[in-house]
Amino acid sequence: MPALAQEGRPLIEITPLQDMERLAQEAQGLTHDAAVSWQAKAELRPGSGAEPDVWLHLQASVLFPLICQRCMGVVTVPLEIDQWYRFVATEAIAMEQDDDSEEDLLVMAPQFDLLAVLEDELLMALPLVPMHDECPVAPVLQAGEDELADEASEKPNPFALLSQLKKNNS
Prior knowledge:
By secondary structure, this protein is of the alpha+beta class. A hairpin with a 6-residue loop joins strand 3 and strand 4. The N and C termini lie far apart (94 Å).
């Protein structure tokens, strides 16, 4: 990351959704051309120590197919990421500074996996309850009601027995 920050040029990529296994598992009707457009730019900023801090700006967007929880059809949801991270030297420093920092902290590692961070952010951006603004097909809400009506017609009325007892006692 420090080399990317010193270079100052953004890393601009398009990654197929199939290459992000955990995210691809959440997709419904994933096509071969579905991809995440993303950009990462690292920069050096003055820090509290003698060395400058390394910061990373990660941006991404994708149209992601999910199941609408209202009509059960496929709904395409736009996912957007625009996140800043500050790198720290160790996990201990990250834990110590996490509560006091507004930005997200990442630990500087020789084999830093930028795609894993991107995939994590996209997974967190998934809506809890995906729905169309207006469903293309009206949702069917009567399945349970029909079953209840059928069951009610089959069961005898419990008060019918009381009515017969009352007639016999009169």
